[in-house]
Amino acid sequence: MNDLFMDFLTIQLPTYFFLYMAITLIYRNRKSRINRVAALMMMALVMYFLFEYLKTSLLPQHQMQLVLYGSAPALLMFVCTLVHLSILLGDSVTYRFRKWLPLVYASPYGLWLYFLVTWDHHLLYNEHVTDGRSPLHPTYLLVSITFIIGYILLSVLLLAYSWLRTREPRRKVIYRWLVLNDFQLFGTFALITTLLQSGIIVTRISMILYFIGYLVWAMRLRHLIGKYNIMPDYHKRFQILFESAPNPILMLDLKGNVKEINPCTQRWFADTPADQIPQHFTFADGQSLQQMLSSCLEQPDSVTHLEMHVIRQGQSRLDLVAGIDLITEANEELFVLHLTDVTSLKEAERRLIQSEQNYKYSAHHDALTGLYNRAAVEEQLQIKIAGGERFVLVMIDMNHFKPINDTYGHITGDQYLQYVARQLRMLAQKPGDVVGRIGGDEFVMLLACPEHVDAAQMVHTRLSLLNDKVFRQEDMEIPVSFAAGLGIYPEDAADMIGLLRYADQQMYSIKRQQHRGIHFRVHEL
Prior knowledge:
Alpha-Beta Plaits; Beta-Lactamase; 6-stranded antiparallel β-sheet
């Protein structure tokens, strides 16, 4: 009875401390991987000492099964999660070591399964050893001790590496105390194991000493968590900021699924279920949400800002700037998507761009016909001359335009000019063709003309189509009548002024020779 009470007092009763630690860590932040791994580590200790208590005090007849299938895997889980936790606590310093975690877990459990499957259980655990020595087979015991001590030492080295590499003073202090705490655990385990193997203490005493060592280590860890707030507690630290943020904030997993949204997001998308909100996002550069998240995942320290718009149900379009951040501090591997409404700024930008476009258009186009104005025609002439390719400049002057204005009015005269402009635009459909209005009833055409093409014949063929046109309005019909002259670059002139003068002279020469009625002549056909 005294032994049973002693076992309960020294092993089972303090085990509840580990259970308390596990529950506390989960309560602080169950979404944090650090907290989940730390809680699992504490539960492993709970299970280990629970099986030891059952083996020693309650079910000694099943001690072989309790050790091989209970205590051993629980203790291996403790040291594996200790290494895992050390890597997570190192944050960005030890981030690249995460890829080795599957090997960290698989190695000890693989050997444990190997022994259970290939060795006789009574050989692995000799129940008849009662002289205080370990009942485990020496080989199995050596492998187990190697993994336990080795993994504890590995956790010390990982924390020491984080301590040396980090530049943040507060983290340096935390890592230093964690290194000392884990080194104390390593020293305690190594010392007790040495004493046990030397026969100085028996197995029962060693178990009590092991437990005291683990308990001291856990109590110091609990003190460090409270003093330095090591384990993430983002629910308490950021909940107020998250809920009171004036902009929508969405927390997404790596696949883009919505995990949590703040109240502002709920107000913006009141009629939309939370998991369907990303479906309303349209990004300006054509990326999908998943592509954006993948890009951010490839560079964890980067912050991406993308333009997007949202069309909410029954509401107008919103222009937004989306910022995406990858959470690494809590090792949760979550994305935070925060949206900023820039609709008014975008609308002002669109108006400014439209105003600039209108100004540029007005500066280069004739207000009445929409054709190029004189300045734009001269600019196009300079470009074509600089290009060195052969082209034709055609000057067109409408006949009898003043009588049209005097007889039918200026409004009809303007409509007549607009009609002529539309017809000229239809005649200049080939690449490189330019049409402009350079005066009241004067038009210009710049037509591409390769070396092998007869320029006069080409112009005659095109303008003959205009010669057959009639402007009709209600019961009024006005035949289109004009005179045209052409200048060929570079045959007739090698510069802009010379080419314009030459074509103008040809046009007025034709105009002076015209008789009554409708006449059409181009150059000297």
